[in-house]
Amino acid sequence: ISVESLNTLLKQLEKEKRRLKNQVQDYAPRLEQESKAYHKTNNECLTYLAEMSQVSDSYQVSKRQQMDQLPRMKKNLVKMGRYNPVNQKTMHAKRGVKKIMRSNHLPLHL
What we know:
The chain has about 110 residues and is mainly α. Helices cover about 70% and strands about 10% of the residues. A hairpin with a 3-residue loop joins strand 1 and strand 2. Keywords: Coiled coil.
């Protein structure tokens, strides 16, 4: 290869080097901005997940407390005479589900 063609190749390579260097300088701030945005979004996501977990935990505790109160409520209804274990759903082969209701109260007028 001649000296002249080597000099031409060298100039092309230096030009390509400058172009790539400028491209890297352009990408650096963009990369930093995107990195900050990613970390901000990730932190918000973690905060949101923590809040969801806390709400879910408190909901489960509340639900458990309500379930614990059901036997006491049933016992109170039995004491007051308002609970009748016969009030339940029965299955009928052709008609489906039928609810049987019996009142514990006497009629108002005889």
